[in-house]
Amino acid sequence: MALGLPHPRGLSRYTVERDLPAVMPDGVTLLADRYVPSGVERPPTILVRTPYGRRGPAALANGLPFVLFGFQLVVQSARGTSGSGGEFDPLGSERDDGLATVEWMKRQPWFHGTFATFGPSYLGYSAWAIAAEAGPELKAMSLQITASSFRDAAYVGGSFALESTLSWTDLTHRQQRPLGMLTAPLTSRRRAVRAARSGRPLAELDVLAGGRPMRFYQDLLANHAAARGYWDRRDFSGAVGRVAAPVTLLGGWYDVFLPWQIKDYLALRATGHDPYLTIGPWWHTDARHGLPSIRESLAWFRAHLLGDPSGLRPDPVRVYVTGAREWRHYTDWPPPGARQVRWHLHAGPPDRRGLGEDGPQDHPASTYTFDPADPTPALGGPTLLGSSRPVDNRPLERRPDVLVFTSPALSADLDVIGPVGADLFVRSDREHTDFVVRLCDVAPDGTSRNVCEGGLRLPSPAEKPAGADGVRRIAVDLWPTGHRFARGHRVRVHVTSGAHPKVAANPGTGAPLATTATRMLKARQEVFHDPDRPSAIILSCL
Q1: Collapsing DSSP states into helix, strand and coil, what is residue 485?
Q2: Residue 208 burial (C-beta neighbours within 10 Å; 0-12, 13-18, 19+)
Q3: Per DSSP, what are the bridge partners of residue 415?
Q4: Mean pLDDT, all residues of the chain
Q5: Closest CA to 181 of 52, 80, 86, 59
């Protein structure tokens, strides 16, 4: 074994055919490279479609190691990228171009009847775009840190994922310039954060970050509330259950796409499939998930393309439990036997608000004021570029616009593995506002590290209107987690109304995202705790 991979059985050579042309139905030519293992008769094909380049360091991320194990690899550059013709329309061309590419591939003399798809992030999305319609030749899919739809990741809880969308749009614009592949990943997030903190309207931030209007960013702003149209040909979540090929998914607890990747897993399970799921202590650009991605994909491809299941693990679900620092195996997700436990938020002075399994207490509501001109920041949490490693949130907890609820020190380890949600009874003097909930682990020395979080923008189609007294009951979905709160640690919950610049601040006006207006309204927020309105966080405990 080398780096956890089986020995490639003497295969160390391969040939490469560059710039293979595939003509799309509209006449645009896309270019692909084909890597062929030497001395292998009728190798199965792995297809990858990418906007991030085909050569250099990108070749490793595109699956080049598979060639050493007897698979031929076809890597095609998406429309408008790395020599392929046409204009890059993010998310918009992947189904049509992908299906046309499959038909082109099937006509080639080197195609031997079976293929698989592979890839992280956008590459995985491109694979989902064709998965339900690719035909019986598609025998396996191995996808990482991705989802069948990016819509809900762009509009987290109905809000707008400002930092991730702006930084990715800037990255894809810059990477087509000379040396852009090298410099864009290092500079795009910094440019996006600087622009987001400028206080300028959302509609102006693409020019501020990148020096010119950027179509994809403006499209996301314009289609924030669109029920149909733009997203109809960019959302493939409804087709996941119709995918016949076996699927294995790999994600990270701090990845921006994790909640929707798990929804894909659950959609497959609901239609009788047996997908595999791996979740590690990783974030989106974390290099540590590279080797596990290759290792688990190789086992999957051997099983489903070569008929060798010896590398598959017995249990389909494998997750890393942070805090415990150990991998665990389960037969399904959520783990069988997990129970949903309500931990109630208890009122009190700012430094003594409580949290626990004991019932709600008849206390007055907790209050704070959110000012979109000075939005509550996010110190950690999932982001597309850069590190999403958990950080100490104590500086955030000193702000008056963050409610902090803390449990007593735990007398025993507490394992929270599964979905996490908040059931809140709230009132705001603004019809348009956000609520953000964060779960933290407080060490004995006081360090308070974020575990997971989520948010909800009001009004929301999923929530009932406020009652006569203005109180709403809202459900906030946090990122799922696998975490141990160790004995002696404390569980902590934040309730606030901002996570800037990861999420765009809600101005309180109800104006469309794309407006250039700068009017902002403060919001007075209340969170209730009494027996009739028992706000709580809901943990999946094992």
Answers
A1: strand
A2: middle
A3: 484
A4: 94
A5: 52
